[in-house]
Amino acid sequence: MSSRRRVKRPETEETTAVLPIGCRVSAVVTVLNEEETLPLVLRELGKLPLEETIVVLNGCTDSSLSIARSFPQATVVHYTEKLGHDVGRSIGAKLTKSDIVLFVDGDIPIGADRLKRFIAAIAQGTDVALNDISPFLPLFRDWDEVTKMKAFLNLSLGRPDLRANSMTCVPHAMSRRAIERIGSGLLAVPPKAQAAAIEAGLHVRTAASVNVLQSNRLRQSNVGKDNEVSRLIIGDHIEALKYAMNAGGNRLTNEDSGRRRHVVMRRQL
Amino acid sequence: MNRFKISGNRSRSGRVRRSSQSSDAGGARGRIVRRKGQSGRKLGRPASSGYRTRLTGDAERVDSIPLVSVIIPVMNERRTIRRVIREAFAVHPSTEVIVVANGTRDGSSVIAKRAGARVIEYAEPLGHDVGRAVGAEAARGDVLLFIDGDMVIPALRLRPFVNAVLREGVDVALNDYSGPTAKPVVHSVVLAKHTLNAILQRPDLNGTSMTAVPHALSRTALTMVGVESLAVPPLAHAKAIQLGLRVKAVQRVNVGKLNPPRTERERIRPLEQVIVGDHLEALDWVISRGDDRCGFVDRTRKRHYAR
Fold it and tell me: In the UniProt record, does the keyword Magnesium occur (chain B) (predicted)?
């Protein structure tokens, strides 16, 4: 990070974050047929002092491409085929060399003031700044399986304080250091990237609360309890846990040293 | 290296394998007789000793092989153990009670012996849930009921677990207790249990788990999951589900309420860590049987673009 200037941490939610001077900031926007929301998303991003806005379009059959092109500050990457979940983020992260990278989706417009907080958190030394969705979650008994997986991953990684907050969820921001350490390829499976970030000792914390639970666009694949998207995200978390266990052992840091298992084995001989 | 000793009654022949067919028939006959109030021959033992003989027809005492084995790990549970054992014996007319006393210094094991239990004794604590596996290894019944020594649960409330295995063909009869979940942040153990069931594609089981007592196992379940995995209950739980056993939440016993305020032993945070670790170990086993995503595929994701 080129600037070490300390930015005062906002006292309340409503305080406007102060953005650092000298840090190069970019945004990565992934888009799949988002003509309705994309102009709003790009307009908010336009209010931020971004070095570049990388719009990764994939499988778009609507006017998303021409909308993206009409924003002069946007760098447009266009794939005619669908890349699948989160692959666009990985491609965007690979393309930018900025100090701070903000990740958003083309279907959820978020105010620039809110987005600033994620950038500011990274400028202050955070490596991964997550969206704190805790205020918007129902009681645990009404959680879906995906939310449980998110919280369990954090718990297993020794970060129960992160609750159900996840890199699966936008917006979030990353430092260059984090992207380099984790590798942009891993960003295609966000929980795996999160596990890698925590395991690598990177500074992961929440930066602000944006309610994306309501605004997520309903598609055929993400409706219903056991939908395709939910199964994909559950699988991502299992993969992330396995990834962590490959390095940290099959109990991670949760030892059971007081357990004398050999007693059972010996009795069976 | 026998640092443990076994007291109380033990079958001379050790574990006796019975064909399930004949034992079912015999057992059923025996039960019917007893239910009519003509209790079986007691062979001179007081009822409270629990060593009631299973009668098959007019045969003499075939063996003191019980139908139900109740396994109670005990560590300094003097205040409750007598009552716990009494309720255990009342679960079924043909019941053995196995107390696995470990690290007990308060005389619990003496009380247990007097109450008619078979006591397996270890001078040092075995650690979490190892006592269950040790007890299960010594058990001879067709049904194994697991309870704790510090929690008095009336026999009436224990019977449904045993009956689910005996009569309904359930292999793992779980306590239908998912912990307190009407709050925004739950205990890590509650979270881990719910998550494992979701991964095992049994979200209907909510937060029920073999980690919680009471629960009952069939002899088949014990053989299939392996005695040693009972020392890591979520592992046994995962194995039971993955191996296609019938796992069912049978009845709710609010063990959260029954659990007495914990003494220093359990107030230590590592208990949470042990249980979270157990769930990870279980997940690792599930993954080892299939793929790294436990069947939750991401077919649509074109990973080769992400580098």
Answer: yes
